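RECORD TYPE: protein structure
NAME: Ropporin-1-like protein
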Amino acid sequence: MPLPDRMYCSQQINIPPELPDILKQFTKAAIRTQPPDVLQWSAAYFTALSEGQPLPVKERLEISAERQKTDHTLTPGLLKVLHKQLSSKENVGREELEQKWKGLCLPAEQLDTLLALGNFSTQVHWMHFFALACSALGGTIISALKVACEILSEDPEGAAARISFNTFISLYTYLTQLDGDIPQDEIDRFLFSLQEAVTRRGGMVQPADFTDLDV
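PREDICTED:
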């Protein structure tokens, strides 16, 4: 068998110095995120990396990750990723949202359902979509608001999960309007019941303030 025209040794192979760290970070991100379609997620990961955008990566491995391998739907961790990727703009193009959703290997049917519920067109009001997504995770308005606090809060994990009361009012108002069955006096009474705690915390609200209240 003839020898190749050129012989290479390890000294002749140029390995970019940043490559090992890129691969290390990619591997850690894949383990935390547990995408069911690694190739599809990898394409989204390296596209975001090359464009300097927030990466489609969970902050930590979720307990439900094992179940997600066979039933991959939206989770708080994935919604938090979407929020980091899309919340810089008040309105997000539907095409961009679909692209980010697909990059996280989430089912198109679930996205279509949320978009239909919110009656969104080509432009999607991000915080309204976020509220709907929290509702899909929580099941009730109170549970949705709790999920929203846990995702939006800058408190350490396991702490109070406080968010701005103005943000809370915006999310709550949108969900109650969408529900359509909650009387305005009941909405006003619910918000008024939080005023003392909110004032005490300098305009912040946390799940402990409202999880035992009726909407």
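COMMENT: The chain has a mean pLDDT of 90.
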